[in-house]
Design a protein that fits this description.
By secondary structure, the chain is of the alpha+beta class. The chain folds into 3 domains: 2-61, no CATH class; 79-170, Beta Barrel (Lipocalin), CATH 2.40.128.120; 179-350, 3-Layer(aba) Sandwich (Glutaredoxin), CATH 3.40.30. The chain is built from 4 helices and 23 strands. β20 (247-256), α2 and β21 form a beta-alpha-beta unit.
Length: 353
């Protein structure tokens, strides 16, 4: 077994195979895997994501640390940061909120965006140089920046295929737009409905009699999506602690997979690894999780801008709220705020006549 540490997150890996001097490490839930040669100092190999034909070289050094520190920290970035990624791009620019805690030269935290978060980040402040990263089997993220007491200027790297600049300024009062105002039902659509197959090929519709008079939570997601994994874990735990025959969760999977059978395999593996008992239907598969195509699959929505997107329907199948993105446990207070709001809102729907 292997444990991957990202700040407070611990990912247990138990799908490991050996052949001669090589090891293959399959990460839980996601399709990505590591394959490497074993040598005296550690591992040398690649992080592979088959659906995207992406190969990222990696080296793992035994008894080493994530980042080597050359000098003590002379800046402390504890606090909230008003952040802009790709500020000079009309098409790629987006806002975020940096949330960081620093003790001596160790830094933990995350970036929240309007659609989710970058999960558990961990790293160091080396003099005035910030270096933080995460690896969860879906993504390898690295953020580097030059820091002052009130500014950050740096770059965000995703695997070996993406690099973009970001700037941030300290602003402990900064707030992002509300997640419940970004996606909504278009005029002319009174009800939300769909018809998609489950992994056995059975077509399921929201209008089926088994869903009559129930509160329905629709989860728009993908098995490739870390924020979807965080939300799925929360939903599984919520159902265990709050069993109710009048509540039904249905997930609609938009899969990055080259074939339908591959998409079904990933959905089944995701359900098994996370412990999901509610249905996950295959809404779409292909070379990318195209949000425009997703919106066409669900024409009653004005747009789909994030995975996950969560839709709350009352017992009359009317949409009462649409929540864009998911603020996972790495966001601290925001995660607690979400879980409290979720539980109170679902309770109110269940208590309606």
């Amino acid at each position: 077994m292997i444990t991957i540490f990202n700040a407070d997150e611990q990912i247990i890996v138990d799908e490991i195979t050996y052949k001669n001097d090589s090891v293959t490490i399959k990460l839980p839930a996601f399709e990505g895997y590591l394959v490497a040669k074993i040598n005296k100092s550690g591992l040398l190999g690649s992080f592979i994501k088959p659906s995207l034909d992406r190969v990222v070289p990696f080296k793992a050094t035994k008894n080493s640390v994530r980042f080597l520190s050359n000098e003590n920290a002379n800046v402390n970035i504890t606090g909230n940061w008003e952040t802009v990624f790709s500020a000079n791009s009309e098409t790629d620019s987006y806002i975020a909120k940096g949330i960081f805690n620093q003790k001596e030269n160790k830094v933990t935290g995350t970036f929240r965006t309007t659609t989710g978060d970058y999960r558990y980040l961990e790293g160091i402040m080396d003099g005035d140089s910030l270096k933080i990263s995460t690896f969860d089997g879906a993504h390898a993220f690295l953020f580097t920046a030059k820091a002052t007491d009130s500014t950050l200027n740096g770059f965000f790297y995703s695997d070996n295929h993406w690099k973009e600049p970001f700037t941030a300024k300290l602003n402990n009062d900064y707030k992002l737009p509300k997640e419940d105002d970004l996606t909504f039902i278009k005029e002319g659509y009174e009800y939300f409905d769909f018809s998609f197959p489950d992994t056995r090929g059975r077509v399921i519709s929201l209008s089926d009699t088994e869903f009559k008079d129930k509160v329905i939570i629709i989860q728009i997601m993908g098995t490739w999506c870390p924020n979807c994994l965080d939300e799925s874990k929360y939903l599984v735990n919520y159902l265990k602690e709050n069993p109710n025959n009048n509540l039904q969760i249905i997930a609609l999977a938009f899969e990055v997979a080259k074939t339908r059978s591959t998409a079904y395999q990933r959905i089944n593996r995701f359900k098994e690894r996370v412990g999901i008992e509610y249905p996950i239907l295959l809404a779409q598969f292909g070379n990318e999780a195209n949000k425009n195509l997703a919106a066409k699959k669900l024409p009653m929505l004005n747009r789909v801008i994030s995975y996950p997107t969560t839709i709350f329907l009352d017992k009359n199948k009317k949409v009462r709220k649409i929540h864009t993105g998911f603020n996972g446990p790495a966001t601290g207070e925001k995660y607690t705020e979400f879980t409290d709001d979720f539980e109170h809102f679902v309770d109110s729907l269940l208590n309606e006549d």
